[in-house]
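hey m, so remember when u said the tokens were messed up on ur end? i reran from scratch. heres the input so u can diff it against urs
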Amino acid sequence: MTKFKNIKLLIGLVYLTILSIFLYFLLSKFTIQEIQSYEFIKSNLNYFQFLKEKNNFIVSFLFIIFSAIWVFLAGFLSPLAIFSGFMFGKWFGLIYVVLGGSLGATALYLFANYFLKDLIKKNFTNNFSFLAEKFEKSELVYLLLYRFIGGIPFVISNMLPCIFNVKPGNFFVSTVIGISPQIFLIASIGSSLEKILNMEEEMPKISEIIFLPSIYIPIVIFIFLIILSMFLKKIFYKK
């Protein structure tokens, strides 16, 4: 247990170190007031668009790598999906986040399966042993349901399948398919925000943004998926 806590602490420290370095370089160039201003957002949006148009392949590749590292270091996908939709559009944003996130999740699963398997079994087997029979029946199908339904913190859900000895290939495929609906909806919101910022000279009101069809429709569908996943969760996790 102590070893498990030490490894979690190490991962957390690495994550905080990377985040701190990023914030240091960001705040050393800009003030909080500048970052919060609409003019700052607009000007940097234009810069990102220029960067993407000039070096689209490199920027896309680096974003995928960053997404993989982010998830491996216990990051969650929602902020990446918003930014990716904002930066690359809803379709390419979906592809880049799902690919990078799935690679990072699979890398974390392999890491946990090699270094933390005994500790994970010790701490989680009693609570999730009833799922073993389901995974044995049809590993890929139940992995897809497991990914789509969620209900477990993302970082834990990436490591928990160690208990069931799932194949890395099935883990990767199920992650790609299982997280795609939610990521697409979030990336759609990010893409819509980018279009709004390009059209508006002044910062629009929150109420004006929320009631745009391109914003509220993905939100409504996303809420529906959450309700559906909560219903399926009761069935899937029923002992």
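this time it looks ok to me. Confidence is low (pLDDT under 50) at residues 32-38. if urs says something different then somethings off w ur setup not the seq
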